[in-house]
Write a structure and sequence with these properties.
The structure holds 2 protein chains of 2 kinds. Chain A has helices at about 1-25, 30-35, 45-55, 60-75, 85-120, 125-140, 145-160, 170-175, 180-205, 210-215, 220-255, 265-270, 275-305, 305-310. Chain A is an all-alpha fold. In chain A, helix 5 (about 85-120) packs antiparallel against helix 6. Helix content of chain B is about 30%, strand content about 20%. Chain B is built from 16 helices and 22 strands. The chains are: A mainly alpha, B alpha+beta. Chains A and B meet through helix 2, helix 3, helix 5, helix 7 and helix 11 of A and helix 1, helix 6 and helix 12 of B.
């Protein structure tokens, strides 16, 4: 019942967002014809007529939405106006690199973000704590593309440790190519996750039950693991879920900076050229992934949170 | 056949990043200027090279010339496909797959094909393939359809002969046959591939010195030297070319970190990012591209007197330096010298004689501009100009330069910003044009013949935005388009150019040459815009013998 309900919510969200995106693209300035014709010499009346007809550019808004939506219902996402390839194939070819990048970044966020948060909380009010809090504040405030450009200049152009652009072949090469992009993408998220981890744990340290646990003579490391951390997981996992789901849209910026042909870059280009079947597919893909991640967070949360599992039980 | 005109891949992100970098650069020191050799080619190579990585400014949209155009696709297909005529690095063209082309009368062209030419699958190029290819390019929805406007029919009239019949004489048709409109395709391969032809994974249907061996969508496109190539070997060239792509930042960073061997830039300004780097050679050569200020129907700029006065006081050297790091050239004409694909001396001397568009305005120019307005009874204080920019650094710098010029002669000027995605609509949307008096754009033509540009001033032309009408000009355009003799046609073109500048139909600003960056161990390729249609990879090679 619960699964059916959330699947229903998902479908409604997808339909509504597809309509909103379609409408936004329709209302956005710029005529798709300009891009479809290509260049100034190509705008002969015959060609304008042929292209307008081919892409239904003269049809009313709702007709065009229905043309697209009925295709999707039949399992056909349409063809890209720019690349002339089926949208499904186009997105599928860009998909692996973006997922790799988002996963790589997520792992960095989880390990470094939570790790720094724990260190800061355990050593709260120390120099280390201040350093971590200061560093993450800086990390959260610098725009992603600026971080990307900075990392490229230092690690690709000066030190030449990492490549400046591209996605690489095979697992190791790809890991190497995507390290700078993944770090750029992760930095803001690391800052947020470490702050939430720290805050959540600091509150626990001050709670009565931790004081009681200490009173029983447990070692500090056991106190941290069994009582502080265990009871702090709720907000941490929720925040990690939100942040990781947001990483996917962060790829839009970072893929352009690092010359990676992923789903994010595809979306930017498609918006700029009014390639609406591609925009629709990519946005729906992102919305869908976001919802899947958030649902997953809802499902795993009870496993982490002692209080929630007691309540359910 | 059209390339980067409307810069369809304006990426918001890159623009923001570039603007941020530009700001950082400005505050530190005066803008960096580079001096780069200007020639039709880089010095010849002495030895072949094994494998190179070449950057494109974006992934090709398609590898089917009838489905897409764009510089990225053309840069690749220049090496893969062959045309009835072939453009040379100096931008003249010569017969190629057509051994000869003879006008038997004003409207009948007989093409005789070379013998022995074969497609990549080994099958011979027949007259049937040629006729079929031209008919495919002629279809209304085809990218190349405009080249065939005057063509009535194409017929096979002999084993090695195809006859094209025209509705009226068409002097630029042979030029067009050196572009993508003249590509000869293998009918069998295309019919077998069906709808997937042109996309990743489909075979190429061409006959050139390179074959497409891999197109891994989103990652790379690889060409390899065709083992069965029918033509002569150049003795140099690359065995393999791997094309990868990215935005300007990614392109420049890949070159600087030695991850890529070369690029033909989308805009000369991008080469500033490479800077004075001993590991990278920069080169520039002729292209037809030039930036102009284009007037709209109403408002002060619709008056030719105002345009002439404005043209006299625009600091073109300043635009070239500030918007293009010195890699563009102040221009007296609305198209670059790459348009001079024949009778080059005639065009060169006619260009020298052009007046009214100084590189750096002198006091005398400013005086003359003021006098022009006064003589016409125009009170400059009552005039105002609205100049459109897209918020990007290039157009904003240019718009500011024009506003500055207007102020010098007492005309009030303001700048209005439109979204980059909308800017291209200035050509099509009259209501958008009503919002500005001048918009600035880079224009280019795909054929190396000035007539192809000056026809934009015809009273019936879609690009004649002020509604200017001059029967004499119209007659000249028609004469030039139908005069098959190059010498005579050049004379007409020169007259059109003079007339255009008298009227200042568009105000010429700067010419943007073709710009190449290449690893300094490599050389041999054209630095002119010939790279779009000429098999440049076969000329690529090492500077020194290994």
């Amino acid at each position: 019942m619960r699964a059916a309900k959330s699947a229903g919510t998902m479908v409604v969200t997808l339909v509504v967002s597809s309509f909103i995106v379609f409408a936004a693209l329709y209302a956005a300035p710029g005529d798709p014809l300009t891009f479809l014709l290509g260049g100034p010499e190509n705008r002969t009346p015959e060609r304008i007529a042929a292209v307008t007809e081919q892409y239904h550019l003269n049809e009313p808004f709702l007709t065009r939405y229905w043309l697209w939506a009925s295709g999707v219902l039949r399992g056909d996402l349409g063809a890209s106006m720019q690349y002339h390839q089926p949208v499904a194939a186009l997105v599928a070819s860009r998909f692996p690199v973006t997922v790799f990048l988002a996963l790589y970044s997520s792992i960095l966020v989880v390990i470094i973000g939570i790790g720094l948060g724990i260190v800061a909380a355990v050593k709260r009010s120390s120099r280390t704590d201040r350093l971590i809090v200061g560093g993450t504040t800086l990390g959260a405030s610098v725009p992603t593309f600026a971080v990307g450009l900075f990392l490229v200049t230092v690690f690709a152009l000066w030190l030449r440790i990492f490549p400046a652009a591209g996605a690489g072949d095979g697992f190791i090469d790809r890991l190497w190519h995507l390290t700078l992009p993944a770090i750029s993408l992760a930095i803001g998220a690391i800052a947020i996750v470490s702050r939430v981890t720290r805050q959540s744990m600091v509150e626990m340290f001050e709670s009565d039950h931790v004081a009681a646990a200490r009173g029983t003579g447990l070692s500090e490391s056991l106190v941290v693991r069994r009582h502080v951390l265990r009871n702090s997981w709720g907000p941490i996992v929720t925040m990690v879920g939100l942040v990781v789901a947001g990483l996917l849209s962060g790829t839009v910026v970072i893929e352009s900076v690092f010359g990676i042909s992923g789903v994010g870059k595809l979306l930017v280009d498609a918006i700029n050229t009014h390639d609406f079947p591609v925009v629709q597919a990519v946005v729906l893909f992102m919305v869908f992934t976001y919802m899947v991640i958030m649902t997953a967070v809802d499902l795993v949360l009870p496993l982490f949170d002692a209080r929630l599992s007691r309540v359910r039980a | 056949m059209t390339e980067s005109g409307f810069t369809p891949r304006l990426v918001l992100v890159a623009t923001v990043a570039a603007a941020a970098l530009a700001l950082a650069g400005c505050s530190a020191a005066a803008p960096q200027t580079l001096t780069v050799d200007f020639a039709t080619s880089l010095p010849p190579a002495v030895a072949p090279v094994d494998s190179v990585v070449w950057m494109l400014n974006g992934e090709p949209d398609s590898l089917d010339v009838d489905e897409a155009g764009g510089a990225d696709m053309s840069t690749v297909l220049a090496n893969v496909c062959e045309r009835l005529f072939q453009i040379q690095p100096d931008l003249t063209s010569r017969p190629f797959l057509a051994e000869s082309a003879e006008w038997t009368n004003d409207t009948t062209l007989v093409l005789t094909l070379v013998s022995g030419a074969t497609f990549h699958d080994g099958s011979p190029i027949t007259a049937d393939d040629v006729a079929w290819s031209l008919e495919r390019h002629m279809l209304d929805e085809s990218w190349e359809a405009d080249e065939f406007d005057n063509v009535l029919s194409v017929a096979v009239t002999g084993e090695q002969q195809v006859t094209v019949t025209f509705s009226q004489p068409d002097a630029v048709f042979l030029q067009a046959m050196a572009g993508n409109g003249g590509v000869i395709l293998n009918k069998k391969v295309i019919e077998e591939a069906g709808d997937s032809f042109g996309g990743p994974g489909s075979p190429d249907a061409c006959s050139g010195p390179y074959e497409v061996t891999e197109w891994n969508a989103g990652e790379r496109l690889t060409l390899q030297r065709s083992a069965s190539y029918w033509g002569e070997s150049t003795g140099v060239g690359a065995e393999e070319i791997q094309f990868v792509w990215g935005d300007e930042t990614a392109v420049v960073n890949s070159l600087k970190s030695d991850r890529a061997d070369g690029v033909y830039f989308a805009s000369p300004g991008a080469a500033i990012g490479v800077g004075n780097n001993p590991a990278i050679t920069l080169g520039q050569g002729p292209a037809t591209n030039a930036w102009s200020a284009i007037p709209t129907r109403d408002g002060a700029a619709s008056d030719p007197v105002v345009r002439r006065a404005l043209s006299l006081v625009i600091n073109r050297t300043g635009i070239a330096a500030a918007a293009f790091g010195g890699l563009a050239q102040p221009s007296k004409a609305p198209i670059g010298s790459g348009a001079w694909g024949f009778e080059q001396e005639t065009f060169e001397s006619a260009y020298e004689d052009l007046t009214g568009s100084p590189a750096t305005p002198s006091d005398a120019d400013i005086e003359e501009a003021r006098k022009l307005l006064a003589d016409a009874g125009l009170d400059s204080l009552s005039l105002s100009l609205v100049i459109a920019t897209d918020g990007g650094s290039t157009r904003t710098v240019i718009a500011n330069a024009i506003a500055d010029a207007a102020k010098k002669i007492g005309i009030e000027a303001s700048i209005i910003t439109f979204p980059p995605q909308q800017y291209g609509d200035f050509y099509d949307d009259e209501s958008l044009r009503a919002e500005a008096d001048l918009f600035v754009d880079e224009y280019y033509i795909s054929k190396n013949d000035p007539v192809g540009f000056y026809k934009n001033g015809e009273s019936s032309s879609w690009a004649n935005f002020t509604g200017w009408e001059d029967p004499e000009f119209d007659t000249l355009v028609r004469l030039a388009q139908s005069t098959l003799d190059d010498g005579e046609r050049a004379q007409y073109a020169v007259q059109l150019q003079e007339r255009w500048n008298e009227e200042m139909i568009w105000i010429p600003l700067v010419a943007t040459p073709s710009t190449v960056a290449i690893d300094s161990t490599l050389t041999g390729i054209p630095s002119s815009s010939a790279y779009l249609y000429y098999p440049w990879a076969a000329d690529l090679g090492l500077v020194e013998k290994p």
